[in-house]
Amino acid sequence: MFGRHLRIVLLLCSGLWALAFPVYGQTAPAETLSGPDAHEILGLNGHLFGDWGGERSSLQERGVDFDFHYISDSLWNIESEQKERFASWNRFRGTVDIDFGALIDQPGLYFHATALWQGGGNLGSYLGLLTSPSGMSSHNLFRLDSWWIEKRWQRNRIALRVGQFAGQDSYGDQDYGTSFFFEPMSYALSNLSTTFETGSPASTPALEIRVVLIRNLYVKSIVLAGDREPFSHNATGLVPQFRGSPVSVSEIGFTPGKKASAVRPADDVESRRGYSGLYQFGVAYNPGKFETSTGAKRSGNYLLYWMGSQALWRLDPKGGKGLDATFAYDWSPANLNNDNRVLTAGLRFNEPLPLPIHNTMSFGYVQNRLNSQFLPTGMPAWKAERGLEFNTLFNIRPMLLLQPVIQYYANVGGGAQRAVVIGFRTKVEF
Hints:
This protein is mostly beta strands. It is built from 7 helices and 16 strands. Strands 1-2-3-4-5-6-7-8-9-10-11-12-13-14-15-16 form a 16-stranded antiparallel beta barrel.
């Protein structure tokens, strides 16, 4: 008996060690603990360091999963009003997931934590774009991104999550995010922060509840700390800060072709089989003080979003080869928000090339229009910035992914300039 308890303590300690020093890797089960790392590790099902001599499988059987991976966006500005420039954004992330049902016979109880180091050049800032060419680039840091404890009831139909995590990890983020580079398409709609709905890796204290009403319909709500300076107040992520107004976000979703309890499935080859889809409507509200376009102070700000992703055509109705489409739009009050509308749309062709490895071709479109009510006196009217993207993804090895891309931008930053960006994304599972 003592030996069994000792093994449990050692497993828990190993989980906490991975939280502080993220150096190991294993993809978490698709239907369990998806978080900020979901769009980074999905699509890879192998590991560069293998099964650790059987230890990885042994830990999994006990309910403990580790993941350690590297992802980078290497992008070149080959045509714009700015001088040519290369920028590389790099991220190492470590994650631990614990299923206490398997570990200590507490079914429906889970723990998730993820930390990261990231840094490099932000090409979007250099070019003055509203739409960042990379959905990862933000701040150079080493931080505990998020952690939470989750309890589920009624065969996963009801779930309660409490801890430190970001709203944009699951409210307003793109279901086909692994297939694109643009910030509004590879992660979340870029102006969700108008209500200070937090995004990775700026997680803050939060509480969420999810309920599956019927097989294909769910509702969920989150309340989080709308800290306006999360990196200044909690640079390491280790000490939760309850600052700012409590931001609430709610979403209702319809999931044809799959169970609503799997609303965050892995975007991999297996999950693309058949005619599955996801349709979402959400609203975010912050009761805090905001400045209007005239300089007056007003209480309260909100944002509405509509999103849809759907498999359109399959060579085999039960297979994965075929065409998918995605669309998203959001809106917030024009007198409170300079960037109050974003539109995205895209197509994805699964397995277009006759290769023995998984491959996709994706085309994306983003329109971002700044609000004329915030236009400084004497300046010409802003134009709608439009971005086009085409990329091809190759799952070269089970643990290695390569994704070349070309992007074109018209009306950079709302002006009259254009830009062309080329590059590639690399993912490695360790």
